[in-house]
Structures are given as C-alpha cells and as structure tokens.
Amino acid sequence: GQNIDQPTEMTATEGAIVQINCTYQTSGFNGLFWYQQHAGEAPTFLSYNVLDGLEEKGRFSSFLSRSKGYSYLLLKELQMKDSASYLCAVRDSNYQLIWGAGTKLIIKP
Amino acid sequence: EPEVTQTPSHQVTQMGQEVILRCVPISNHLYFYWYRQILGQKVEFLVSFYNNEISEKSEIFDDQFSVERPDGSNFTLKIRSTKLEDSAMYFCASSEIPDRVGEQYFGPGTRLTVT
After folding, report:
1. What is the per-residue pLDDT across B41-52, written as a single tens digit (0 to 9) for each?
2. How many angstroms separate the CA of residue A49 from the nearest CA in chain B?
3. Which residues from chain A sit within 8 angstroms of residue B44, using beta carbons?
4. pLDDT recorded at residue A97
C-alpha cells in the first residue's frame, strides 16, 4: 500500500528553527509537495521537490532523498503565524497526490 | 492575485439528497481537481479533470460522484445520494499545467454536513 509518515505534532519557539520530516512509500514517484494548512482553511503550496537536494525559498527550505524515500521541511526564524499543519504529499505513478496526515506545528513565544 | 473560489462555503443536507458543489478555477488554468478532507483526517484525492473529461479518479470517486464543467468558468462536483460519511470539507483546486512541475491552487473549500 501507499504510505506517507510524518510526526503528528511538534512544538518550537518563536525565532527558532524547526525541521519536519516526511517518509514515504508510494507506487512510483513524480514529485513531493509541502503544503501549509491553517485550521479550517485550504492548503497553500509551499514547495516542490522532484530531484534530490535542497530547495530554498525564503525562510522555508525543503530537502528530498529519493533513494531513502525521505524529505524534510525546514522553517527558519519561526513566527507565531507559522503555527499551522504542514502536509507532505507525494505524486505517484498515476500522478495522483497522496497526502500525509500532516504535522501540527505549535509555536510558543 | 487570481484565486479559486467555491460556493457555498457551508452546505447542510439530509441523507439521500443530491448536492452540487461549485468551483470557479483560475481563468487560465486547464487542470481541475476535487479533494475531500474529513474533519481531523488527511486530505484525499477524488478526481482530476482535463479537456472536459476525467483524467484520474480515486477509489472514493464511485458512481455516486460526478464532475462537470458546464460552461467556461464553473467546475462542479455532484453527489447523487449523500451519506453521513460524505460529511467533509471539499476542496477544489486548479493548475496551469499538470503537476509534473506545477502547483495546485486550492479554493477555500465547501464544508458539507450530511444529517
């Protein structure tokens, strides 16, 4: 079966750095996405990785290792507004997005 | 900035009734999607649509579901006979190109409550 694992919840301090991990086992791989979702709202796109390595976008970076079936999202200089769920999603061989359950990130002052 | 819109924001219906959820994708986008998210659970893919036909659908998207692009702007999801377990947030998304490299823009969602 297809599976995407990420921690259920993480806590971090304002101004700090946090890394959210994602591991996946899917039927085929055509890219990995990270989305941010605030409670009761739609997911918003953060990053996309299809090749191994690090993609940097402002305070957010995402890393992919296809051989390990592993990705992480790195958030720097955390702000209170970063409190949200972070969803890892993998596009499988049928180009369907398979979603993880999300990691709820709690930022404390 | 262009955005995906969805109506209604909240729909309450009785079990067995038909509902139509409406979406207006971003105007120059060609690929359209429906997802659902049961409260507290993960997002689930339902269907993708391109060139006036379904391109992919999941196991969830059974005969009770249908999609349509009735005109040049709207994209609808119909549930023929709703069940209690259809209660969820339904998100429409669109992308300019298929997600080989592109990103999907999500609408704000329609919360469907089946009683």
Report:
1. 999 999 999 989
2. 9
3. 99
4. 86
